[in-house]
Specification:
Elements (H helix, E strand, L loop, with lengths): L8 H12 L3 H22 L1 E4 L3 E8 L2 E4 L6 E4 L2 E8 L1 H7 L7
Protein backbone atom coordinates (compact mmCIF):
# COMPACT_ATOMS: atom_id res chain seq x y z
CA UNK A 1 0.00 0.00 0.00
CA UNK A 2 1.56 3.30 -1.05
CA UNK A 3 1.65 6.11 1.50
CA UNK A 4 -0.16 9.26 0.44
CA UNK A 5 1.78 12.48 0.72
CA UNK A 6 0.50 15.37 2.76
CA UNK A 7 -0.75 18.60 1.23
CA UNK A 8 1.98 21.17 0.65
CA UNK A 9 1.66 24.90 1.24
CA UNK A 10 1.62 25.52 -2.52
CA UNK A 11 -1.20 23.00 -3.01
CA UNK A 12 -3.17 24.61 -0.17
CA UNK A 13 -2.70 28.08 -1.66
CA UNK A 14 -3.83 26.86 -5.10
CA UNK A 15 -6.93 25.20 -3.67
CA UNK A 16 -7.90 28.32 -1.68
CA UNK A 17 -7.32 30.47 -4.77
CA UNK A 18 -9.53 28.23 -6.92
CA UNK A 19 -12.30 28.00 -4.31
CA UNK A 20 -12.36 31.75 -3.60
CA UNK A 21 -11.74 32.62 -7.27
CA UNK A 22 -8.76 34.85 -6.45
CA UNK A 23 -5.10 34.83 -7.48
CA UNK A 24 -2.50 32.63 -5.80
CA UNK A 25 -0.82 35.78 -4.47
CA UNK A 26 -3.99 36.90 -2.67
CA UNK A 27 -4.58 33.39 -1.30
CA UNK A 28 -1.03 33.33 0.09
CA UNK A 29 -1.51 36.78 1.67
CA UNK A 30 -4.67 35.45 3.31
CA UNK A 31 -2.82 32.49 4.85
CA UNK A 32 0.07 34.67 6.07
CA UNK A 33 -2.39 37.18 7.54
CA UNK A 34 -4.38 34.41 9.27
CA UNK A 35 -1.20 33.03 10.85
CA UNK A 36 -0.15 36.50 12.05
CA UNK A 37 -3.60 37.15 13.55
CA UNK A 38 -3.55 33.76 15.30
CA UNK A 39 -0.14 34.50 16.88
CA UNK A 40 -1.13 38.04 17.91
CA UNK A 41 -4.45 37.01 19.47
CA UNK A 42 -2.98 33.99 21.27
CA UNK A 43 -0.25 36.21 22.75
CA UNK A 44 -2.78 38.86 23.78
CA UNK A 45 -5.74 36.81 25.05
CA UNK A 46 -4.41 33.27 25.39
CA UNK A 47 -6.80 31.81 22.80
CA UNK A 48 -7.55 32.03 19.10
CA UNK A 49 -10.73 30.51 17.70
CA UNK A 50 -10.49 29.16 14.16
CA UNK A 51 -14.20 28.76 13.29
CA UNK A 52 -15.18 25.29 12.17
CA UNK A 53 -11.73 23.81 12.91
CA UNK A 54 -10.76 24.39 16.53
CA UNK A 55 -9.07 26.62 19.05
CA UNK A 56 -5.41 27.52 19.67
CA UNK A 57 -4.88 27.81 23.45
CA UNK A 58 -1.93 28.95 25.59
CA UNK A 59 -1.72 26.83 28.76
CA UNK A 60 0.36 27.42 31.90
CA UNK A 61 2.11 24.26 33.11
CA UNK A 62 3.01 24.04 36.79
CA UNK A 63 6.50 23.21 38.01
CA UNK A 64 6.92 19.51 38.74
CA UNK A 65 9.48 16.84 39.49
CA UNK A 66 10.58 14.30 36.91
CA UNK A 67 13.22 11.67 36.31
CA UNK A 68 16.22 11.64 34.02
CA UNK A 69 15.61 8.43 32.04
CA UNK A 70 19.32 7.78 31.56
CA UNK A 71 20.38 8.02 35.23
CA UNK A 72 17.10 7.75 37.14
CA UNK A 73 18.01 10.98 38.98
CA UNK A 74 15.13 13.16 40.17
CA UNK A 75 15.08 16.58 38.51
CA UNK A 76 12.95 19.71 38.83
CA UNK A 77 11.03 20.70 35.70
CA UNK A 78 10.24 24.45 35.81
CA UNK A 79 6.83 25.99 35.12
CA UNK A 80 6.32 27.01 31.50
CA UNK A 81 3.79 28.14 28.91
CA UNK A 82 2.81 25.73 26.13
CA UNK A 83 0.47 25.88 23.12
CA UNK A 84 -2.26 23.35 22.47
CA UNK A 85 -4.71 23.02 19.62
CA UNK A 86 -8.15 21.79 20.59
CA UNK A 87 -9.96 20.33 17.61
CA UNK A 88 -13.66 21.16 17.20
CA UNK A 89 -16.03 18.28 17.91
CA UNK A 90 -17.56 18.45 14.41
CA UNK A 91 -14.10 18.09 12.81
CA UNK A 92 -13.10 15.27 15.13
CA UNK A 93 -16.33 13.37 14.41
CA UNK A 94 -15.86 13.89 10.65
CA UNK A 95 -12.25 12.63 10.64
CA UNK A 96 -12.55 9.96 13.34
CA UNK A 97 -16.20 8.84 13.58
CA UNK A 98 -17.33 8.08 17.15
CA UNK A 99 -17.78 4.46 18.16
CA UNK A 100 -21.34 3.20 18.18
CA UNK A 101 -22.74 2.54 21.65
CA UNK A 102 -24.21 -0.88 22.39
Amino acid sequence: MAATSRMTQTQLIREIAETAEVSNKIAKQFLVSLAEIAVRETKKTGTFMFPGVGKLVRVERKARTGRNPATGETIKIPAKKVLKFRVAKAVKDAVVPPKKQK
